[in-house]
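Recall the central idea of this unit: under ordinary conditions, the amino acid sequence of a chain determines the structure it adopts. In this exercise we apply that idea directly, starting from the sequence alone.
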Amino acid sequence: MTKAESVYQNHNSSYANINSEILFDQLLEISADGMRLMDEKGQVLRVNGAYCKLTCKKKEELEGRRFSDIYFKDDRSRIFDTFQGHIQNQDLPVHSEGKYCLWDGRPIWLEFSNSLLDIPGAGRFVLSILKDITPRKEAEFALAASENRFRLLFNHANDAVFVISLSDDIKLDRFIEVNRAACESLMFSKEKFMTLNPYAIIPQEYYDSINIKLSELTSRKQAIFRMESLRRDKRRIPVEISAHLFEFKDRPTVLFIARDITKRAEVEQRLKNTSAQLRNLAVRQQAVREDERTLIAREIHDELGQVLTVSKIQLSLLVGRLFEDKENMKDKFKPVMQLIDQAVDSVQQISAKLRPGILDELGLAAAIEWQTKDFEERTGIAFRSSLLKHELILSKDKATAIFRIYQEALTNVARHAQAERVSTFLRIENGLLILEVIDNGRGITRSQLEDHRSLGILGMKERAMILGGTVSINGVPGQGTSLKVEMPLDENMQ
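Accordingly, the structure predicted from this sequence is:
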């Protein structure tokens, strides 16, 4: 090699080294992460600005010193000895992370990326890239703590909780998670749950209804409903389900909270049985009361009415014989005769009020018509009626209930409505016998309807309810009140 060639080669080598060093410096400074170059003895050769910012030290305080000087003084020896051991054993971790305390007492989580560089003729060096991951670790710890709290609540909840994913056709797909209460109530281990088809714990007759609820969840996101769950021993448990739809790993998933309502269902059934018994008792009491009224009305009409009639006849004959030619004496007995006539009228009115014979003899429509005319004569309120023209075949209990409700409605009109007109309608519609009473009075108020002391309204509703009917009352202030009775027809009428 000529001298010129040697000079040229050395010049190119120096130029390449200079370019490499410039490039290295630029890479150090543009890096957002801290970068540190040190020899195998742990002495820092070069650092970048990000490293200075990370450690809160200047370059002159870092370069030429041990790397361990950035840590808290009590930890420096341990950290340095660990580094020396890795260098000697040639097992320096490529990636690692840990929590450290810096020289100023500041705690920090650091992530390291280490590269061991062997440069011929220069020695061995370590290039480390340091990243502050404190925010990420704190978020991870917070998430872990949150997950622990959730799992604690999840597993200690008194209600059974199921997390179930949905298939593409919005059907129950598979169990994702179940809590301890679910395992205990249905007698499956958690491992067994994870292998089950969710429909295995649902009675087959509920499949359609649960699929309908799942479809509703896609729009409403939550639902509450009742069904039954199947235990491992096939025993059924009545449950109230609270379902919530959410996304988990990009799939629709449902959180089911199932509350065992066995005791509540038993109480509800007992309450239903008690209510049925009370209604049956009420029906019986109504029937007994009407029978007593009928008997009393008949006794008053037949016995007392006959006695008064016979008394009038006998008194008339006696007066005629004793005072045959004395008209002035006969006239003195006319007031007595009138009193007897008034007594007979009173007996008829009392017996009719107790139990109008027309209700049993001619039926409900005729009884309503009679009651309407009697009420119109006594109150002077104008009536308009539209009643059934054909014979109405109705059970005695239903006919009596509707008639008594009508009487109570007219009584309320007379006492409270201050009405001038009343319209009465009796018709058959959609398998129901409907009675409507509409007045143009001052209108019943909501507070009056809801007043627990309104025994008349309560009595009307109870009479209808025990026979499967309903009573609805609506009022408009200043415009009047409407009462509507709907009673199912007897089977032989439908």
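The chain has four domains: 31-138, 157-260, 269-355, 356-493.
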